[in-house]
Amino acid sequence: MMQTRVKTTGRDRPFRPWPWRMALAVLLLLMTPLAAARAEPVSITATPIPLNVDKSEQAEIGRLRYLGGLELRADSAHFGGFSGLLVSDDGRSLIALSDRGSWLTAELVHDDDGRLIGMERADIAPARRPPGRAFDPEALMFRPRENDLLITSERNHRLIAYELPQTRSRSTPYRYNAHELARFRPSVLEAPRDFANLGKNEGIEALVQLTDGRLFALEEGGENPADTPARGWLIGSKDKVERLTLTRSVRFRPTDAALLPNGDVLVLERRYTALGGVAARLRVLEQEALVAGAELQGEVIAELVPPVSVDNMEGLAVRQDGNRTIVTLISDDNFNQWQRTILLQFELRPERTR
Known about the structure:
- The chain is mainly beta.
- It has one domain: Tachylectin-2, Chain A.
- The termini are far apart.
């Protein structure tokens, strides 16, 4: 019996996904994250800088003792604009997030005296964007209990969580490089209704988890007089939201916050205006003062004004090193060639120095 072979077109050929088509799809799917993780790292030039450019011998300012600083430069369109900052408990690893939505990971290098002298193994990659309108990350924090990285986004004011992979032991974000962090999927969390009334460029820049699990959030606010406080929120479980305020000085705005070992909150504020010039300062808020309806004052423990090394300081991280509390600051250069990305480290003294 003679058989006739009929040539078929792709349109006429029946669809058979298995084995080779499906196998190819699975292979490509598996290769995608591996390719991302193997992407080339970014080359960062880290130049040590003094605390005071006019007095290189200065080592203390307010309650801070200088532990070294770096001016950071990199030939990458994703580098710069860092508003969120985390430093690992051992002080070796750094995670930063830019307001264009890029992760930066790196290893910090210290000398035998614990002074910051360099940066190694830097990696940078764009974060996955959540659904919705503008994505402008500001505050960044790690929540061990929830096992996620929590950020705030400005313009379209939201709380966004990047959940870490579940492992047998609770993992930390510092085990991942930027290209691995870039694979984490974002989820938008329910935020207080007040967030919808925040100014376009005046959103939540300071966010910290208190010892009782509540979130403490502070708005940046606008260029308002000193008698106009910054609004704050205590966000608890079961949608419980309480309001409070933080007094402000003219032209200073809150830009980040971090929890101190004793449960108090350290707030970073910055001034970057044509009239006032550039400056930054740190304030301590006692945990007992963080209650509904409070008008927070706090203690200013240090103020950085030129010729002290300072720029548009927006990122703050705190860690404990034995009996020492280590404070790290990073600046947001706004992707502007006239500004700098600087990283500063200090030891927080228990009492003010003279």
